[in-house]
Amino acid sequence: MEKYDFSGYATKANLLCSDGRVIGPDAFADQDKMKVPLVWNHKHESPFNVLGHALLERRDDGMYSYLAFNNTEQGENAKTLVEHGDVVALSIYANKLKQQGNLVTHGQIREVSLVLAGANPGAYIDDSGINHSDDAEYEAVIYTDQPVEMYHAEEEKKEEKKDMADSEKKKESEETVEDVFNTLTDKQKTVVYAIIGEALSDKEGDDDDEGDSKMKHNVFENDERNENVLSHADQQMILEAAKSPQVGSFKAALELYADENDLQHDAVSSGFYQTSPSEGAGNITWLFPEYKDVRPGAPELITSDQGWIDVVLRKVHKSPISRIRTGQVDIRNIEALRARGYQKGKQKSQTGNFNLVRRTTDPQTIYVKSALHRDDIIDITDFDYVQYLYNIDRMNLNEELATAIMLGDFRADNADDKIFPEHIRPIWTDDELYTMHYDLNVEDARARLQGTETGSYFGDNYIYAEALIEQCLYSREKFKGTGTPDFYMTPHMLNVMLLARDRNGRRIFSGKAELASALNVGEIYTAEQFADRTRTDEGNAQHKLLGLIVNLADYSVGSTKGGEITHFTQFDIDFNQQKSLLETRVSGALTRVYSAIAIEEPVSGN
Length: 606
Hints:
The chain is of the alpha+beta class. The protein has 3 domains: 6-151, no CATH class; 194-219 and 230-287, no CATH class; 364-602, phage-related protein like fold (Alpha-Beta Complex). Helix content is 25%, strand content 26%. The chain has 13 helices and 25 strands. It has helices spanning 73-84, 156-173, 177-182, 186-202, 232-243, 250-260, 307-315, 374-379, 385-406, 442-450, 460-475, 491-498, 512-519, and strands spanning 6-12, 22-23, 35-40, 50-59, 62-69, 89-100, 103-115, 124-127, 137-147, 149-150, 220-221, 224-225, 317-319, 324-329, 356-361, 364-373, 435-439, 486-489, 524-526, 534-536, 542-550, 555-558, 566-572, 577-590, 596-602. Strands 1, 2, 3, 4, 5, 6, 7, 8, 9 and 10 form a 10-stranded mixed beta sheet that branches. Strands 17, 18, 19, 20, 21 and 25 form a 6-stranded mixed beta sheet that branches. Strands 13, 16, 22, 23 and 24 form a 5-stranded mixed beta sheet that branches. Strand 11 and strand 12 form a beta hairpin. Helix 5 crosses helix 6 (250-260), helix 7 packs across helix 9 (385-406) and helix 10 (442-450) packs across helix 11 (460-475). The longest helix is centred in the middle third of the chain and has 22 residues, at 385-406. The radius of gyration is 40 Å and the shape is elongated.
């Protein structure tokens, strides 16, 4: 068996600490027979502070440790100090601590430290200021104020037999408070913890108290006062504030002090406290079960309407050519192109000329760039944080593309990030040769339907619906797009039409399918991003968009090989960041004249 130089309790179970917390008997049970470093006074910044190692042993009353010094100069010096009795106390540094109420239930001992005996008697926890909500993880330095003893391996069996004999005699003759406490059940111990916590909170005015029940810092470290320690002068100041009419209570005064000095405070989480006679015995919220996620994993996303975006990107024509060129010749109503009748002896006339309409569209790069800290990637374990952020970036890129195709980019022309309409030509604001713009005239429809007895026959929704149907059908007379177009409208516009009733109060349209048939369109899609969008025409008149009628097969999105949506990742070792770039290089434009219809409403005041 390995020889050890001395031994002692690394941490003591069921020992009430000065802040009202108690170390559970099995808080570190899974570290039985595990070796951890032995260091000087919790100093981790240098290997010269490592004095040896400690073998942990689980006991019913805590975690015992057998400690061996190394052969370094520091180890030999520390061994001499222990043998001479100059240093007599141990302490542990632990993290991943979990707490239920004031009971520490689990943790991981990372090292055992040889420390100078502090002036604060008994056990206490010097934690790092992490919130002590139920089941939360935090780290702390835990002092138990238990003396060490020199250890001799060759006498181990004799000592164990002697300890067992002494223990039996002790049980027969006299039991300590700790012995009696260990005979209680867990349920009974919980009640005792609550009573102790309440008793501690009642000692508001005791100047001899070493610290209140919520003290978050070690009172002494290395026999020097810590700058964040609650001193006797501070306690006196808190008590004076509590007596003042402006504060009125010790709890409020303590919270005020903690706020002013950047200390953590939670006046009720560690146990019971008396609030007022009318509120009964005190707060018992620490006994409640912890919160649980209704839907575990990645947080739900709150997004704008995404349904129409997938439709747009699916229905547009995809071209392997990014530099798009279209050409059309309008031969309608050209007198010179008419066929002619021939008369004998007369010379035949040449057919007249016609104009060629041509335009070109070049591509532009569109991207979404983000960076993830590697610390966050490692610490977030409930879901795949990298994939989660990628999905958000892809959603944003898709929405930007669909919006640029249908409406355009509303950033200023001098903005560095603008998607220019010369590269992705918006359907709504395209030239009249490609998109025909029609204003909805509700007042004309009202006059035709109701005559002079305005309001006696039909409601506003019915008049609005009839005006829109009439305008859509009339505008289709000049439509030259392919197939049957779809109608992309605002949700409010759809609701107005579905809520339209006749003079008998019956709904005009039973659903979207019947409404689509009345409008002579294939499908109706709602896009909340269309709401409250306005444009200014060449005459400085403003028009509010109600909907677009278009077959997206007439809109080409061009991208050469390599310009498709591509995901790039790179790790920045200087800033410890995982960088992500989603990028595409595309062009877009309507390729047929008179292939889209914009239904608008004049903005009042024009």
